[in-house]
């Protein structure tokens, strides 16, 4: 709201009503003013302007005549809002004590108010990047805001009073604006700058006094549209990939400059503490200084498509990255890189000697690719590895328990490689896979000619082969009872005698056994010897099911992907959405099932990318087809089996349908039943 005080001017000269024309002429000449105020006995009664005085002079016979004055004056409180009245040409502002504080002519007041309004609008529009130019009816520029100066690249001192019509180039007739027309969305150029905006007639008291041009830079506008487009694309990209907070999302502009980092920040990877330290830098800097390799931005730019790579950083960090290019009108606008850490948990806890040992181990593994790498990120496995490494130093017998496919054999190998025996043999035998009549000769060997069909030179048993090394007896629960006795004897006496032989050989073997059975229960049932059980159950470790350590699914998936890519010489990768499906599956077959699924996905899907739909099809598609079939892998008490089935149905169902209400419809029970069961499960 504009008040009178905002636009009042101070009164400089008062003259008495009895002043002569000559005296007033002196005032005008001496003070260089346009108006004098006329008083009578100290009270303001009127005013006399230069024009009025000149008029009097032209008609007066002599200059000693008294002045004439006008009295169309209105007194207004200085703090009241500006309003205009008919038949009044001059406003006098007064304060609360009725003292005169200033004046304004109506004409000046209107001009002032327009100016103030424009200033307000200007302030408002400045932030929005809108330029304003106002001209009079001769197209002379009378006002130009700061934004307009910036957009046009010309200062107001140059532009003021210049003819706007001749400076501007467009295909519209601006005279129409002065006739009262508004021109909308007109593209113009001035000083080689492209602008777009509207022309409005400027009306004062019903008269057109000029035009106002409100505009913005087309360049900036187009950038904003592109940005909007990009954000839209990015949003949908991010929506899809940003489901979990374990990802680092990097936005890099077309020149390689890092613009944004979202999600988690992989400090170990960048070797800096905060995202601010990398924002604004060129990604090239990091790869050139070998902070990490390869540079996925470069790959993406060169190949002009979405790429994926495993990036290793100078430290111990390793990430899996997918780089997606964003194009606008054929030009590379941005690259969005999504990365996930696949560094093994423990590496950050390792000291240098451990790292060296790991490197040595890795080199050996490279040579002997039969040896399997233990891949993990979960705290559970990290803890297990720490414990396993500790006991690996001693010769104690170790029992590995866990569901089928959890990786018991890989752990057995890990124990061996972490032990002082790591330069000796690691020998594995699957007790469930060898015919009963051959187990004995396999384990203990035989002398020449000891039985029909035997090698005529005789043969060393696995105990002998593993001497000084490690013997891994897998599926120990499958060992027949008679063999259990013999094994017990070997373990007690630490010597073996070949079949048909007489001389016992002393052996020094570290025994690791594994089972997916409940050995204690087998002892209770009389299927496993109690004395052997206690011999083997010296240091037991339970390997958790994959379902209990979901953090491992991602690095394992990438590990198998890389393994099979190499094995089959196929180029293929997962989309982040595909990974998400793998991570939410329950994996009843554990790591082995995951490994199989990855192999099938690599071999059987078309195209370079393994998509979400492919994974869904391989994980759930078949289940749908064989909808009504249930497979029982092993015998167990009925009550336990029913509970297990219920648990699996509810877990899988809740993952898919999210609410008890929806799931209840699929399972054909009431939502209350589902909720009760969920509570029980928790
Ligand atoms: N943590 C892991 N890192 C890498 N590979 C793994 C891991 N765990 C399991 N695997 C792989 O998964 C497959 C199954 O593992 P493994 O044979 O060790 O399981 P298991 O528990 O011994 O199974 P079973 O009880 O049926 O003998 C193997 O090919 C193994 O290499």
TrEMBL record:
CDD domains: AAA. InterPro entries: AAA+_ATPase, AAA_lid_NorR, Homeodomain-like_sf, HTH_TyrR, P-loop_NTPase, PAS, PAS-like_dom_sf, Sigma_54_int. One of its GO terms (molecular function) is ATP binding. Residues 351-369 have a biased composition (Basic and acidic residues). Transmembrane segments: none annotated. PROSITE patterns: SIGMA54_INTERACT_1, SIGMA54_INTERACT_2, SIGMA54_INTERACT_3, SIGMA54_INTERACT_4. This is HTH-type transcriptional regulatory protein TyrR.
């Amino acid at each position: 709201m504009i008040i009178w005080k905002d636009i009042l001017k101070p009164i400089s000269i008062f003259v008495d009503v009895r002043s002569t024309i000559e005296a007033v002429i002196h005032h005008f000449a001496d003070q260089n003013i346009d108006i004098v105020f006329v008083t009578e006995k100290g009270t303001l009664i009127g005013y006399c302007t230069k024009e009025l005085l000149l008029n009097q002079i032209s008609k007066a016979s002599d200059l000693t005549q008294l002045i004439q004055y006008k009295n169309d004056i209105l007194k207004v409180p200085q703090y009241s809002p500006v309003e205009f009245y008919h038949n009044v040409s001059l406003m006098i502002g007064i304060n609360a004590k009725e003292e005169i504080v200033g004046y304004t002519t109506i004409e000046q007041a209107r001009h002032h108010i327009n100016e103030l309004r424009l200033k307000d609008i200007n302030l408002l529009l400045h932030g929005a990047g809108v330029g304003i130019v106002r001209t009079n009816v001769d197209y002379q520029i009378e006002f130009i805001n700061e934004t307009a100066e910036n957009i046009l690249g010309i200062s107001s001192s140059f532009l003021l009073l210049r003819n706007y019509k001749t400076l501007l180039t467009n295909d519209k007739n601006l005279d129409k604006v002065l006739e009262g027309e508004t021109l909308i969305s007109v593209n113009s150029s001035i000083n080689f700058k492209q602008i777009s905006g509207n022309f409005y007639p400027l009306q004062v008291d019903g008269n057109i006094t000029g035009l106002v041009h409100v505009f913005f830079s087309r360049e900036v506008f187009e950038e904003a549209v592109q940005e909007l487009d990009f954000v839209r694309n990015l949003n949908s990209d991010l929506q899809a990939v940003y489901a979990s907070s374990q990802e680092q999302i990097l936005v890099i502009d077309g020149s390689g400059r890092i613009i944004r980092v979202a999600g988690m920040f992989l400090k170990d990877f960048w070797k800096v503490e905060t995202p601010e330290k990398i924002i604004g830098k060129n990604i090239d800097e990091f790869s050139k200084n070998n902070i990490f390799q390869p540079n996925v931005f470069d790959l993406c730019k060169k190949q002009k498509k979405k790429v994926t790579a495993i990036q290793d950083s100078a430290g111990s960090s390793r990430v899996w990255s997918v780089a997606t290019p964003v194009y606008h009108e054929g030009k590379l606008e941005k690259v969005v890189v999504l990365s996930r850490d696949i560094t093994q948990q423990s590496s950050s806890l390792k000291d240098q000697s451990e790292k060296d040992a790991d490197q040595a181990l890795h080199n050996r593994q490279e040579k002997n690719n039969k040896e399997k790498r233990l891949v993990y990120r979960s705290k559970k496995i990290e803890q297990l590895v720490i414990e396993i490494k500790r006991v690996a130093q001693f010769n104690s017998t170790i029992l590995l328990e866990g569901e089928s496919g959890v990786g018991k054999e890989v752990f057995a190998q890990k124990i061996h490689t972490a032990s002082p025996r790591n330069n000796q043999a690691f020998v594995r035998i699957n007790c469930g896979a060898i015919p009963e009549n051959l187990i004995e000769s396999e384990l203990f060997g035989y002398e020449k000619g000891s039985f029909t069909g035997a090698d005529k030179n005789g043969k060393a048993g696995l105990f002998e082969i593993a001497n000084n090394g490690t013997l891994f007896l897998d599926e120990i629960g499958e060992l027949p009872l008679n063999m259990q006795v013999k094994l017990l004897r070997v373990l007690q006496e630490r010597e073996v005698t070949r079949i048909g032989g007489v001389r016992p050989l002393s052996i020094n073997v570290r025994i690791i056994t594994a089972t997916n059975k409940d050995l204690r229960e087998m002892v209770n049932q009389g299927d496993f010897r109690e004395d052997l059980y206690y011999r083997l159950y010296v240091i037991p470790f339970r390997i958790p099911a994959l379902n209990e350590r979901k953090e491992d699914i991602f690095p394992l998936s990438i590990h198998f992907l890389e393994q099979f890519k190499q094995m089959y010489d196929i180029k293929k990768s997962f989309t982040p959405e595909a990974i998400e499906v793998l991570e939410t599956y329950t994996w009843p077959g554990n790591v082995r099932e995951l490994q199989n699924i990855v192999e099938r996905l690599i071999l059987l899907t078309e195209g370079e990318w393994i998509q979400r739909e492919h994974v869904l099809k391989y994980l759930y598609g078949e289940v749908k087809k064989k909808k009504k079939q249930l497979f029982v892998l092993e015998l167990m008490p009925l009550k336990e089996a029913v509970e297990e089935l219920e648990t699996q149905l509810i877990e899988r169902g809740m993952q898919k349908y999210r609410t008890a209400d929806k799931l209840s419809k699929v399972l054909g029970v009431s939502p209350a039943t589902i909720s009760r069961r969920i509570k029980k499960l928790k």
